[in-house]
Specification:
Elements lengths: L3 E5 L2 H4 L12 H4 L2 H4 L2 H6 L1 H17 L4 H12 L4 E5 L5 H4 L4 E3 L2 E8 L5 E3 L18 E5 L9 H9 L3 E5 L11 H7 L3 E6 L11 E4 L2 H12 L2
Parallel strand pairs: 1-2, 1-7, 2-3, 7-8, 8-9
Antiparallel strand pairs: 4-5, 4-6
The protein binds nicotinamide-adenine-dinucleotide and adenosine-5-diphosphoribose (APR).
The site of adenosine-5-diphosphoribose has 23 residues, from helix 1.
Length: 228
């Protein structure tokens, strides 16, 4: 049995109108990530941090999946149980296209209580303070993995990488670990590895194959080669 693991990053959602982080005009050009994407930042200035994610949630709510998301969902439907999609993205565009995905950096759609770990559907605009509906603590935060925190689903993802036959990374700059190291784990497992990105990522030389271009064009073309 084949097992295909696909890692996606901000680049796959760029053509749906969602800003990437590190490209010119990207989110980290206007915000220092230490100011908005760490637990320390949230403790220091929760209004700024909630405002940053409220703006991103509003943008994500307007966005629609593009042909790259749709092609991956089709691939997953064609090979039930054989296509694992892992995303660093916090938007819900893979789901909107009909795919099932592991969100290793969390989701804008969810709120998390920093006191009791309860999760609930995030309102479009989270407040400060945002009370937890389960325990009442004024500790509601976006359910986003911030710098210095441990990404979600790591054991499950590592298990899939160790048994995969094909690994693809789509629209990710290869600058943030542990995701940037997944190619090496897949390669060690004997998988064929392919990068699909607008330009060479920081880890492009770890891949057996590199394809460059906009995701909405190169992902459907790659998927078409895999379908019977
Ligand atoms: P880091 O490498 O500095 O720290 C990650 C920590 O997690 C390290 O201490 C590492 O040892 C540990 N770790 C990694 N995998 C683990 C595993 N399987 N089991 C136990 N521990 C594990 O990374 P960072 O720069 O602090 O970033 C952490 C994460 O937060 C990254 O995945 C990053 O992309 C994410 N992040 C998300 C946003 C966002 O806005 N969505 C912003 C910033 C960072
Ligand atoms: N098609 C394909 N690739 C694209 C497109 C496109 N239309 N537009 C941009 N790209 C590529 C860029 O060339 C870049 O290499 O997507 C990549 C986006 O990289 P980043 O902005 O660094 O996003 P990502 O790799 O997902 O960031 C990882 O960093 O800050 C954290 O938690 C955040 O999940 C995020 C993580």
């Amino acid at each position: 049995m084949e097992k295909i693991v696909i890692l996606t990053g901000a680049g796959i959602s760029a053509e749906s109108g969602i800003n990437t982080f590190r490209d010119s005009g990207g989110l980290w050009e206007n915000h220092r990530l230490e100011d908005v994407a760490t637990p320390e930042a949230f403790a220091r200035d929760p209004v700024l941090v909630q405002g940053f994610y409220n703006a991103r949630r509003a943008a994500a709510a307007q966005a629609r999946p593009n042909p790259a998301h749709t092609a991956l969902a089709e691939l997953q439907r064609h090979f039930p149980g054989e296509v694992i999609i892992v995303t660093q993205n916090v938007d819900a565009l893979h789901e909107a296209a009909g795919a099932q995905v592991l969100h290793m950096h969390g989701s804008l759609d969810q709120a998390l209580c920093a006191a009791c770990d309860h999760r609930w559907p995030a309102p479009l605009q989270m407040r400060v303070p945002e009370p937890c509906p389960a325990c009442g603590a004024p500790r509601g935060r976006p359910d986003i993995v911030w710098f210095g925190e441990i990404p979600y689903h790591m054991e499950e993802i590592i298990g899939h990488l160790e048994s995969c036959t094909l690994f693809a990374a789509i629209g990710t700059s290869g600058q943030v670990y542990p995701a940037a190291g997944f190619v090496q784990a897949a390669d060690a497992a004997g998988a064929h590895t392919v990068e699909l990105n607008l330009e060479a990522s920081a880890v492009f030389s770890d891949f057996a194959e590199v394809r460059q271009g906009p995701a909405s064009r190169i992902v459907p073309a790659w998927v078409a080669e895999l379908l019977p």
